[in-house]
Design brief:
Layout lengths: L2 H7 L13 H12 L11 E5 L2 H8 L14 E7 L3 H20 L3 E5 L5 H7 L7 E9 L15 H9 L24 E3 L8 H6 L3 H7 L11 E6 L2 E7 L7 H20 L5 E3 L15 E8 L1
Parallel strand pairs: 5-6
Antiparallel strand pairs: 1-2, 2-4, 3-4, 6-7, 7-9, 8-9
Helix pairs in contact: 1-4, 4-9, 8-9
Bound molecules: flavin mononucleotide.
Flavin mononucleotide binds next to strand 3 and helix 9.
Pfam families: TM1586_NiRdase (PF14512)
Cofactor: FMN
InterPro entries: Nitroreductase-like (IPR000415), TM1586_NiRdase (IPR029478)
C-alpha cells in the first residue's frame, strides 16, 4: 500500500483487543524507533514503548486524556525530549510518522492529551529521565467494532456540561460515525494572502487538490483542525490557530502532524520539497489574524 493511502486508512482507535502485539510487530517498533526519519534526527527525541500498558493506564487515569479520561490500551509509546517549541513540533511529526507506519500493519493508535503533566507522569511511572514526556500514543490491535468516539458513551453528561461551559469538544457529535468530519478545502487554503479563497480550478491546475484532500485527514486535538495554508509561489506557509489555553503544547504537536501529512501528500503527488521552520522576514505581509501563528513554510 502506498504511504499516501495510509492517510486515508488511519483513524483514532479508542478501544483495543486485550491481545498483545506479536513479536514481529514489537521488532518493527524497535527498528522504527532506532531509524527515525531525517527531519527528526538530531532533535534529541527518544521513543520508548511501554509493553505493559496496564501500569500506564491505571497510573495515569484521571491525569491525561480529554477531561482526564485515559484511553486503555495494551501498550503505549512515549516520546521524550527537551521542552522547547521545536521539540514539540517534531514530536508531532515523529509520533504521527510512527502512527502511519503502524496503521499500515493494522495496528490501532490514538494520541493522548498529555497537557502540562510531565512531572506528574514521571512521578507516577517512577521514570528517572532528564528529558520530558512530550507525547503519548496508545496502541494495540483495534476492537473490530470500535467506533470513533464510543469512549464518550458513558461520559456524555460530563462532556455536555463541559460543552456548555464552552469547552471545545467536537467529538461528541461523531458518536455514530466511523470517520470524523473535516473542514472543506476552501476553508483551509488561501492564495497569496489570508482570506483570499482559492477556486477548485486553481487548486487543480497546481495539482494541489489531492494534496489538500489528504492533508486534511490529519488528526488534531478534539478534531479542531487548526491549520491554514497560504500558497505563495514555491512557498506554502503553515499557520496554526491558537486555542488561547494556557498550555499550548498540543498546538505544536498538531503543527508537526500537519507538516508530515502535507509532506507525505506532496511527495505522493510527485511534488518534492521540505519544511523550513526559520522565520520569514516578510511574513506579516500575508495578513494572518492575531489568533493564528506562523509555523514554517514548505518549499520546493
Ligand atoms: C495532540 C492530540 C491529542 C489528542 N488527545 C486525545 C485524547 O486525549 N483523547 C482522545 O480520545 N483523543 C485524542 N486525540 C484524537 C483526536 O480527538 C482525533 O484525532 C480527532 O478527533 C480526529 O479523529 P481521527 O483521528 O479519527 O481522524 C488527540 C489528537 C491529537 C492530535
Amino acid at each position: 500500500m502506498k504511504f499516501l493511502k495510509i492517510l486515508e486508512k488511519r483513524k483514532s482507535i479508542r478501544e483495543y483487543k486485550s491481545k498483545k502485539l506479536s513479536d514481529s510487530h514489537f521488532d518493527l517498533i524497535d527498528s522504527l524507533s532506532n531509524n527515525l526519519p531525517n527531519a527528526v534526527k538530531n532533535q534529541g527525541l527518544e521513543v520508548n514503548i511501554f509493553k505493559d500498558g496496564s501500569i500506564i493506564s491505571e497510573k495515569l487515569d484521571g491525569i491525561i486524556g480529554y477531561h482526564g479520561i485515559m484511553i486503555k490500551a495494551p501498550h503505549y509509546l512515549l516520546i521524550f525530549g527537551d521542552e522547547n517549541e521545536v521539540a514539540y513540533k517534531m514530536t508531532g511529526y515523529l509520533g504521527e510518522w510512527l502512527v502511519l507506519k503502524l496503521t499500515k500493519e493494522d495496528i490501532g493508535t490514538c494520541w493522548i492529551d498529555v497537557g502540562a503533566n510531565d512531572r506528574l507522569i514521571k512521578e507516577k511511572l517512577n521514570l528517572v529521565s532528564h528529558k520530558s514526556v512530550l507525547g503519548i500514543i496508545a496502541l494495540g490491535y483495534p476492537k473490530s467494532d470500535a467506533r470513533v468516539s464510543s469512549i464518550y458513551a458513558e461520559n456524555d453528561d460530563k462532556l455536555i456540561s463541559e460543552n456548555r461551559k464552552g469547552y471545545p469538544n467536537t467529538d461528541i457529535e461523531y458518536k455514530d460515525n466511523i470517520v470524523s468530519r473535516r473542514k472543506p478545502i476552501e476553508d483551509i487554503v488561501f492564495l497569496s494572502k489570508w482570506g483570499n479563497k482559492i477556486t477548485a480550478e486553481e487548486l487543480d491546475t497546481r495539482n494541489y487538490d489531492e494534496v489538500f484532500y489528504y492533508m486534511r485527514l490529519a488528526p488534531s486535538w478534539t478534531n479542531r483542525q487548526p491549520w491554514k495554508f497560504i500558497l505563495d509561489g514555491t512557498k506554502i506557509i503553515l499557520y496554526i490557530e491558537s486555542s488561547e489555553q494556557e498550555n499550548n503544547n498540543y498546538e505544536l504537536i498538531e503543527s508537526g502532524i500537519a507538516m508530515l501529512y502535507f509532506e507525505v501528500a506532496m511527495h505522493g503527488q510527485g511534488i518534492p520539497g521540505y519544511w523550513n521552520l526559520e522565520k520569514l522576514e516578510d511574513e506579516k505581509k500575508y495578513g494572518a489574524p492575531d489568533n493564528y501563528y506562523y509555523i514554517g513554510y514548505y518549499t520546493f
